[in-house]
Structure to design on (420 residues):
């Protein structure tokens, strides 16, 4: 079933999850697709359609039970467990990622960090000792690492990604501004501020157009 | 016209632009939608449909002239000029953003940086002197700033965004993991590694499903 769900729907599920988690914190018990849609600027019809891929949720005319839908999304997204993450590249960006306090409470634990700069290797960042990239394969196996985050310069990104893929990693988040390639059974997502800024300038240009 | 173009199409345009720029660097003159699609893992039909929103490009059975399509996309995306950017929040993440060498060659110049921590204000980061957030309005006006990047902790993000909006900024990139709100005439994009990691775990979960 999972294979037929459009990627754009999967990209929206974490937004639903985040909004519902906030509602649960505020003790909201029931939410309508109208209310959820208003908060996320997504049409209620779109929300109902997106969720319908995964089953029957909510009561028509009443809405969704917040805790229940949150529980379902937690399962669908695989957030009912912790995930071990390896970071490759411990420059300024890598250190900002290690420092990012939102990851552990959401279940993403960076348990190993790698660099190939001899000046960095064996240094401590918080609780972690930076390892030589040559140790990647052994560490991934020993620590059961699920996800790789790549924060190296663009020129080194494909090599780092190939290295993770060679070690059996099936999910990679790439921060380098480069279109990297992976085999079909590996998921690669990227975070590239340039791409996002370019969608903003598209809109700025439209605003100033006659 | 611009209003009717689906947001997902706009999100893909920078991917096309990046791939074509790389081809131009490698002196490729003509590319088919098949070749472009293979590189981006997007179907050729999707590429042709996306581009058709903006006019008639390419020759059937032959392909697109790389330089020409690049030029068109540069105009469509508003990349034929430089954009001035203000950074709000100069912690570790903010410093990584200031340090990010890909922005200036793509036309995004961070010309001002703000913080509200007295320990940070007046310190230099590279060529920039960190300013008090209280100076935001005057600086945005004097320097003709177009875009704001928010790199403050989640609890302060909405306030920083409101501040930018109040100063007339119409395009904001938010790095804080929080669903912030803006008026309808302001574009807000977010970079939230948690949301991206959650789409990866969705796929990891699907892989391990029976």
């Amino acid at each position: 079933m999972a294979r037929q769900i459009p990627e754009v729907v999967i990209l929206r599920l974490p937004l639903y999850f985040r909004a519902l988690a906030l509602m649960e914190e505020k003790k909201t018990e029931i939410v309508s697709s109208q209310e959820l849609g208003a908060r996320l600027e997504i049409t209620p019809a779109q929300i109902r359609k997106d969720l319908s891929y995964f089953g029957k949720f909510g009561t028509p005319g009443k809405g969704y039970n917040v805790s229940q839908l949150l529980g379902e999304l937690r399962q669908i997204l695989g957030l009912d467990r912790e995930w071990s993450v390896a970071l490759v590249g411990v420059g300024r960006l890598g250190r900002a990622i290690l420092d990012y306090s939102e990851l552990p409470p959401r279940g993403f634990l960076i348990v190993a960090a790698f660099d190939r700069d001899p000046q960095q290797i064996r240094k401590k960042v918080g609780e972690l000792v930076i390892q030589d990239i040559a140790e990647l394969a052994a560490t991934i196996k020993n620590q059961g690492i699920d996800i790789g985050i790549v924060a190296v310069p663009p020129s080194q990104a494909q090599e780092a990604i190939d290295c993770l893929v060679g070690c059996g990693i099936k999910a990679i988040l790439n921060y380098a501004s480069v279109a990297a390639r992976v085999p079909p059974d590996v998921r690669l997502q990227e975070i590239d501020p340039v791409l996002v800024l370019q969608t903003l300038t598209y809109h700025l240009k439209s605003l100033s157009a006659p």
